[in-house]
Specification:
heterodimer, A: alpha+beta, five-stranded antiparallel β-sheet, globular, B: alpha/beta, Alkaline Phosphatase, subunit A, three-stranded antiparallel β-sheet, 18 strands, elongated
């Protein structure tokens, strides 16, 4: 069902609108000034009145007439027809082939009118002939205003929006006020510990309410531990706190918890709800999103390090564009770029019939998640029309879409400059040393070897360049395709000294195309330590990823181009190389439709350049780019995602577009044979040349160094593509594009005034605007999220919607004060946590006070603490925590999903993961969209389709059934009992006491202890009387005892206090 | 009725309020969205207008006072034909395909899923007219054909999606609350094949978790975690201790609604533990009934589907509102015959034809058909031209579904495709129209049924949906 929402915008494509193809202003003007129809032709008029008008009236004007003008179109005057609707003229008199109306009544590509049933063939013919004959009109008493389009905003106008101006007064768009906490008077004023308390107390006093008393220490440490770390306190932590007489005992607990690595795991999970995190892309085969887990790990590390939220946002949006990215503290990998994985955690189809539609569907999710997460706005509502309630225009939507259009998916190379790049430098150095020494040795060689080697090695260009790539031209978007020609287009020859507009990642391709004198140094192992060497010449002017052997990986990405020719011809060679033609930024190239767009370059002779031709006519007019990949890119053939191996190389010489299926004639670049070095070395040996030792040493060094090249570390990330603005899609229909909108932030947030991005996608500038303290939403939205998790309900209850359809803040001044504090404290999340949890407000009891409930039944004024139900992950973690303790290892690939027999369907992983998830915390359990963890789902862990800043807290029988009967719960209850049984204790009473402290952070009441002990006695007795009733092993008294204890543990897990925190 | 026999459980303050608003005993439809047993959201007041007064008893706002108009059906059985059966080979005969068999199709071909467009492919199965209505049905469905006078056949369905998953999500829009308090409101009887899109097809979307479909498997443990692991778990002392300790929690923390509801929830869970095995136990069914469904058919997939159909009837008897049957695995693919149309469709039809006929007959003879809406269909149809040589590709532009039972005008054909069966050309029916019509038959105006999500009031039918009046009795 949610799909009807998630895809609601998609459905709108089918909306019954009559507006059509690209709307261009000049056409409209032309149409408006079209010559008047020849009048006075009585026959034509009579024909119109008798035949044509009845059709228009009966079939069309209900939706396109005086009352309604769907798609901004009315069909009740000739002028209106010619002037047209949102998407241009409806008819071109005399040209039925160019008239959208004629296409629509034939149920054409863009519109099918009337929508329900096609007109009878005769009526279609009448209208077609009428247009053909000039569309003569009849008698008109008073001509209706041609093309009156009431309240249809002109989507192509770049004027400031009147609507935005009118709605910009809404509270959440006002600047964050600099407010002082209200002074509090009276006895209660001693209650207030910080500003939060002053605001809350002020509100309470206005309602004649009192704050509830402070909760007990044992309740407080339990509350704090769950809130800050997502795990319960240990009995010793509790004891320490209870026994600590120091005045800052509470603050010490807070600091300990904030410093715990568990903090990042707990709050990371909250963030993943916003990022709709999953390890797979859902849909039919539930393809894995490779290295998604690195985003999860990044979030945990960032939170634990208390990365300022402003930097965190910048990294989410543009971590790939930072001049000095943060590095992983130990691995040295690029940390900042991982933030951009945020964009790619959504769903994706593998075989869309319309790839552009699929692109816009993904973009829609990206915009939805982006705007809800950072701005608390539902910008997604503006895909098809201006927002119905908020100051957000459809142009705003497509202005944001432009950033994504200018960006691409990548499996980024994360390694720092110290790991792989120096090895490449070193290998290149050794290779050059071989070259130099061989050149010196030439005079000593026999004629044959001398000539052969000289031809290969001598070069004016100085061999390969393995230094820094020259700066890439900024306008990588320029499309050199001649607009009018129909002949072949040479897209790339790699004859330039640099890769020019190609974007280089990884280490395999070097800094530029091959030059004169390029060669491969090939070792044919003879023994483990010795090899036969040969020198293989490589033509100049290639993009080549194997010059230093096959173990380096890398990717080149081209500028974007429009597919304008039927065929793409690629002259390439290689082994395990991959060329991806990425159409509309669609990455899941595979059969049945897209298989041809991913080319595995794996020739029998990997060194012989061959033409590869692909028919791309199906995507004519679409935007595309090339990915020349050695490693890195993903393979989606079959039902699963695999990384393409990086153990080979790819060489590409030329890329040509043409309308001919036969490739251009191959240039004579290949065919030069390798030269074995054996005879050369023998000759040097005979000549007793000192060069021999040097060459041998260089070769051996080359071999040794080449054997130790590590696999690159990959991360899910975004990359800049060719900067391109997106067009407004009228009614959200990608087949009906309007004019382009410059990339910018929302108009209401000053997007129109901000400078346009000068180069690249502009995401970094976008991030700077978002994190400008003047932005009224970003800080408010985030402090509200923290508040919600600490207090149960946000100050703005609708955490992801600060718009008109959301709720207004219960304490607007407090919200602004917190937002200001947040910015003033360097966007430190931990500072705000500290502020919140050390307040007296946070420390209140949650017990009900009937009098106060009457005045404040929803506890809006916070006269007490709210009772909170633990989240599914926390419940699971707490159970494992008690039974065996959690496996505290952090990070890494997700734990395989445990599959129950109820989890079936396509994309089911081949094997099940462990029932107990290796005792890892829930945040490390795999999230497969089509195989979500049933236990977590039952406890409202969201299905990851969009931002979910506020989870449902439902109450369904599946929750009870899970805790009663789920094998995980039962196993863990048993393990918990075993653990307690192992620990020395004076007797059952002490053990019961321990169970209670573990489960609820407090000792049992006398009544509870008594009931528990009585239960144990009863269960042991019952089992000894009726040994067949329980486990088969219950013949042994120890087992009977253990079974009884396991039952008690199981009951305690089911007591509501286990999952509700006071 | 049967399901109300456990009414004497603890009722929380909010539930009490909600039930009063429902008018106790409540018309079935009040269950929709707002059923206290399934819709009780903790501390939620979003559906209520802003303001403390309305929020004071949130559940009140969940309860619709009465249905929008009289209901014609109480339950829906959705016979989901996963993969997209071919309409030209089942309920929409196209003589033109016979005439032009093997020739290129003479109209513009839309992009298809597999982009492997062959020539026109005639149906391998003959059609025969059946019943008083004389509606033609192919020989794939000889038994369903006997009931053709009960069916309203829509030959002009269109969908927005030609790819399984999206089409499935689209089709699976709309699940309903339960009148039965021991069983969930939306039950999926899984015959073996979960449709592409996975369990998310049965997800609750923007509705609270309580509207998720519960997957029932054939076999003894029909529902996940329904069976207590061993006898000791059923020992009343365990429940008693839990009740005692929970009472202590209430005493310590106060009568928080959320705690009370969670405690009440356990009572429901205990009842479900009893109700589900009772539901799945067919030993009380007569031999004649079992045979009617084909439970002992030699073809194993037929046995599975027969059992599902029979359980569907038992669920209807128990007041479950929405029951979906997925297809049994017939080896190879579901109705998605990109190749070997003949073999694949024959196996799939063989598995479901007899059981469906049995279900219709059984519902009818028990007087249940008039209050049960039976819906047969897939997420799209198939192309009139071949994919490869002997398969058919996805076709969202025109396909057939049928409905029978509560409020349906039997013996009807509604809408039409063109001569090839490629595009619907007359009285097109969109998925949203179908949902609107089904809701209408359940007494609900789809335009007035909203739920707040993502910043706006979402309708189950989004902004679309027109009644298909032509099929209404």
């Amino acid at each position: 069902m949610r799909r009807s929402l998630g895809r609601a915008t998609g459905f709108l494509l089918g909306a019954l609108v009559f507006s059509a193809s690209p709307s261009r202003g000049d056409e409209k003007e032309k149409a408006a000034s079209a010559p008047a129809p020849p009048r006075g032709d009585a026959v034509a008029i009579e024909h119109f009145e008798k035949e044509v008008r009845p059709i228009l009236v009966n079939r069309c004007q209900e939706c396109h007439g005086g009352t309604k003008q769907k798609g901004g179109l009315r069909l009740d005057s000739r002028g209106a027809l010619i002037s047209g609707g949102n998407s241009g003229p409806a008819i071109v008199p005399g040209k039925p082939g160019e008239s959208i109306l004629v296409d629509a009544i034939n149920h054409g590509e863009l519109f099918q009118m009337p929508p329900k049933s096609k007109l009878p063939a005769r009526e279609i013919e009448v209208l077609t002939t009428w247009v053909q004959n000039g569309a003569h009109w009849g008698y008109e008493a008073t001509a209706p205003q041609a093309g009156a389009k009431v309240a249809t905003p002109d989507l192509n106008s770049d004027k400031p929006s009147e609507m935005v101006k009118q709605r910009a007064g809404f509270w959440s768009f006002q600047p964050v006020r600099d407010v002082e906490p209200p002074p509090v008077q009276g006895e209660a004023s001693t209650w207030a510990r910080n500003g939060i308390d002053q605001f809350i107390l002020d509100g309470l006093q206005r309602q004649k309410l009192q704050p509830a008393a402070e909760a007990s220490r044992s309740a407080l440490i339990r509350r704090l531990s769950f809130d800050l770390t997502g795990v319960p306190p240990t009995p010793s932590e509790i004891d320490r706190f209870l026994a600590d007489p120091s005045p800052d005992a509470y603050e010490k607990v807070v600091e300990r918890l904030l410093a715990s690595p568990r903090y990042g795991e707990a709050w990371g999970r909250h963030w993943l709800d916003l990022a709709r995190y999953a390890d797979t892309a859902g849909h039919e085969f539930d393809y894995e999103t490779l290295s998604a887990f690195r985003y999860r790990d990044y979030v945990i590390r960032a939170l634990n390090a208390d990365l300022p939220y402003s930097s965190f946002i910048t990294e989410q949006l543009a971590g790939d564009l930072l001049e000095k990215p943060r590095r992983h503290p130990t691995a040295g990998t690029n940390e900042s770029i991982l933030g951009t994985g945020f964009f790619w955690l959504g769903e994706g189809s593998h075989s869309p019939v319309d790839v552009r539609e699929e692109e816009m569907r993904r973009v829609d999710n990206q915009i939805d998640v982006f705007s809800k997460t950072f701005l608390g706005l539902t910008v997604g509502c503006a895909r098809c029309h201006d927002h119905k309630f908020d100051p957000i225009t459809a142009r705003d939507y497509y202005a944001l879409a432009g950033y994504l259009r200018s960006s691409r998916f990548q499996q980024a190379f994360l390694d720092g400059p110290d790991r792989i790049a120096p090895l490449a430098q070193k290998l290149n150095h050794q290779k050059e040393s071989v070259r130099d020494q061989l050149l010196q040795a030439l005079p000593l060689l026999p004629e044959k070897q001398r000539t052969e080697l000289a031809a290969i090695l001598s070069t004016d260009e100085g061999g390969a360049d393995w230094g820094q790539a020259p700066p890439q031209s900024a306008d990588a978007g320029a499309n050199p395709n001649p607009a009018s020609a129909t002949g072949p287009i040479v897209f790339e020859t790699f004859d330039a000294p640099s890769f020019d507009t190609w974007r280089i990642t990884g280490d395999a391709f070097g800094a530029g195309p091959t030059r004169e004198g390029a060669f491969l140094l090939e070792a044919i192992p003879r023994t483990p330590t010795t090899a036969d060497w040969r020198i293989r010449p490589v033509a100049r002017g290639l993009a080549h990823s194997g010059l230093l052997g096959n173990d380096f990986e890398g990717v080149l990405r081209s500028r974007a181009f429009t597919i304008e020719r039927r065929y793409i011809h690629m002259l390439a060679s290689g082994r395990h190389g991959r060329i991806n033609i990425v159409v509309d930024r669609f990455d899941k190239n595979r059969d049945p439709i897209y298989g041809g767009l991913t080319i595995s370059v794996n020739a029998e002779d990997p060194h012989e350049l061959k033409w590869i031709t692909r028919d791309v006519s199906m995507w004519s007019g679409h935007s595309a780019y090339f990915e020349l990949a050695d490693g890195s890119s993903a393979d989606y053939s079959g039902g699963q995602t695999r990384r393409n191996p990086g153990d080979g190389f790819l060489a590409v010489d030329e890329i040509v577009f043409s309308d001919q299926a036969t490739p251009p004639a191959a240039p004579a670049k290949s065919g030069r044979t390798p030269v074995p070095l054996g005879p050369v070395l023998s000759a040097l040996e005979q000549a007793r040349s000192p060069l021999l030792a040097g060459i041998n040493a260089a070769l051996s060094d080359y071999q040794t160094a080449g054997a130790g090249i590590p696999e690159p570390t990959y991360g899910l990330a975004i990359a800049d593509g060719s900067p391109e603005d997106e067009r407004v899609l009228i009614r959200g229909n990608h087949k009906n594009p309007g004019g382009p909108v410059p990339r910018r932030l929302l108009e209401v947030l000053g997007g129109r005034e901000a400078p346009r991005p000068e180069s690249g996608s502009g995401r970094l500038e976008l991030a700077r605007q978002l994190t400008d303290p003047k932005n009224p939403l970003v800080a408010r939205v985030m402090v509200n999220r923290l508040w919600q998790h600490h207090f149960g309900v946000g100050l703005v209850k609708s955490a992801d919607d600060f718009g008109a359809m959301g709720q207004k803040p219960s304490h607007p001044e407090l919200l602004d004060w917190l937002a200001r504090q947040f910015v003033a404290r360097g966007w430190s999340l931990k500072a705000i946590h500290r502020l919140m949890v050390t307040s007296s407000t946070y420390r209140m009891k949650s017990v009900l006070n009937p009098e106060a409930e009457r005045i404040d039944p929803t506890n809006m004024y916070l006269h007490r603490m709210n009772v909170k139900r633990l989240e599914g992950e926390v419940i699971r973690d707490a159970i494992v925590f008690l039974s065996t303790g959690l496996n505290e290892s952090m990070y890494g690939p997700s734990v395989k999903v445990h599959l129950t027999s109820f989890m079936e369907g396509r994309g089911r992983p081949s094997g099940s993961g462990p029932l107990d998830g290796d005792r890892r915390r829930s945040i490390y359990l795999g999230v497969r969209r089509n195989f979500l963890n049933p236990m977590l789902l039952a406890f409202d862990t969201p299905s990851p389709f969009s931002t979910m800043g506020r989870r449902n807290v439902s109450n369904v029988p599946a929750q009870a059934l899970t805790l009663l009967n789920d094998p995980l719960v039962l196993t863990q209850a048993r393990l918990w009992a075993e653990r307690i049984a192992r620990e020395p204790a004076s007797g059952s009473a002490e053990r019961v006491d321990r169970l209670y402290r573990g489960a609820f952070g407090r000792p049992p009441t006398p009544a509870e202890a008594e009931a528990s002990l009585a239960f144990l006695a009863h269960r042991e007795r019952a089992q000894s009387e009726n040994p067949g009733a329980g486990d088969a092993s219950n013949s042994n008294p120890n087992d009977r005892t253990l079974a009884a204890w396991a039952d008690l543990c199981h009951v305690l897990i089911n007591v509501k206090e286990f999952i509700y925190v006071e | 009725m049967y399901c109300r026999r456990f009414i004497d459980r603890p009722v929380s303050r909010r539930e009490m309020l909600a039930r009063c608003a429902n008018g106790f005993g409540g018309l079935a439809l009040t269950a929709l969205l707002r059923d206290p047993a399934y819709g009780a959201l903790l501390g939620e007041a979003e559906a209520a207008p802003e303001g403390a007064a309305a929020a004071a008893s949130p559940a009140v706002s969940y309860a619709m006072a009465k249905p929008h108009f009289p209901a014609r059906a109480k339950s829906v059985i959705f016979l989901y034909m996963d993969g997209g059966p071919s309409h030209m080979d089942t309920f929409d005969p196209k003589p033109r395909l016979d005439r032009e068999h093997g020739q290129p199709i003479k109209m513009k071909v839309q992009p298809t899923q597999f982009n492997d467009v062959g020539n026109v492919l005639k149906s391998p199965w003959p059609f025969k007219k059946h019943g008083q209505s004389g509606i033609p049905v192919s020989s794939l469905f000889p038994n369903v054909a006997r009931h053709v006078d009960e069916l309203a056949i829509i030959r002009s369905m269109v969908s927005n999606f030609s790819e399984h998953t999206n089409a499935n999500y689209f089709l699976h829009t709309g699940s309903l609350g339960s009148e039965c308090h021991d069983l969930p409101g939306f039950v999926v009887l899984n015959g073996g094949l979960i449709p592409p899109g996975g369990l998310d097809c049965f997800g609750n979307g923007f509705l609270p978790a309580s509207y998720q479909g519960s997957i029932f498997k054939p076999g003894t443990q029909a529902v996940a975690n329904i069976a207590p692991p061993d006898a000791s778990s059923q020992d009343p002392s365990k429940r008693d201790l839990l009740r005692t300790l929970d009472r202590g929690v209430l005493a310590r923390l106060g009568q928080h609604d959320s705690l009370e509801s969670a405690i009440g929830n356990y009572e429901l869970a205990y009842r479900m533990q009893a109700a589900v095995p009772d539901l799945m136990d067919l030993s009380g069914e007569s031999r004649a009934t079992l045979d009617l469904y084909g439970i002992d058919d030699p073809y194993p997939p037929t046995q599975i589907y027969a059992r599902q159909c029979l359980i569907a009837r038992r669920l209807v008897e128990r007041g479950v509102r929405f029951i979906e049957l997925t297809c049994p695995n017939v080896g190879g693919d579901r109705w998605d015959q990109h190749g070997d149309l003949k073999g694949g469709h024959e196996r799939n039809a063989k598995a479901v034809d007899w059981p469906i006929a049995g279900l219709l007959e059984d519902l009818k003879s028990r007087g249940l058909l008039e209050s049960t809406l039976v819906f047969w269909g897939g997420e799209f149809g198939r192309t009139p031209m071949a994919q490869g040589s002997n398969g058919r590709d996805h076709n969202p532009f025109g396909f057939t579904v049928w409905l029978a039972g509560g409020g349906i005008k039997g013996g009807t054909i509604h809408g039409a495709t063109d001569d090839y069966g490629y595009h619907a050309v007359e009285n097109k029916v969109e998925i949203h129209d179908l949902h609107a019509t089904m809701l209408h038959l359940l007494g609900i105006d789809h335009k007035r049924l909203t739920y707040r999500f993502g910043g706006r009031d979402m309708r189950l039918t989004d902004v679309h949906g027109e009644l298909v009046t032509g099929i209404l009795a």
